[in-house]
Amino acid sequence: MAKARTRKTYTPAQRKAILTHAAREGLTALDVKKRFGVTPVTYYSWRKKSGVAARRGRIAAQGALRGESNLASAVRGEVRAKIQAILPNIVKHEVRYYVDSLFGTRRGRRRV
User: Fold this and answer.
1) Is residue 22 a part of any domain in this protein?
2) How far is Cα 5 from Cα 12, in angstroms, rounded to an integer?
């Protein structure tokens, strides 16, 4: 017969302490499970709910090695906003040009 598992509940203070400790030491979900007994699913859920869920792994490490800062992410955000602002006009122009080339009209003139 299967052994019944007891469910452990953690106080908000305990959750915060575990998340802080894991972030400070760069622990993975499996490390947290080994050290604190918190399952990876629970750990990720806590991270998401607390807003600590940052991008991790190779891509984040490469950004840290390159010295990316808040300035870099702010510049990236500004560039993205500018592109999103001008993109609709570019698409509109390209679609108009394509339709004109399909139907042989260019600003009221027909191709012969």
Assistant:
1) yes
2) 22
DSSP one-letter code for 82: H
* Contacts with 98 (C-beta within 8 Å, 6 or more apart), sequence order: none
What is the tally of structural domains in the chain?
A: 2
Does residue 25 contact residue 35 with C-beta atoms inside 8 Å? no
Q: What's the pLDDT tens digit per position in 43-70?
A: 999 998 887 665 555 455 555 555 556 7
Domain that includes residue 26, residue range: 11-54
What is residue 32's DSSP assignment? H
Q: What is the DSSP letter of 3?
A: P
Residue 64 lies in a domain: no
| The amino acid at 48 | K
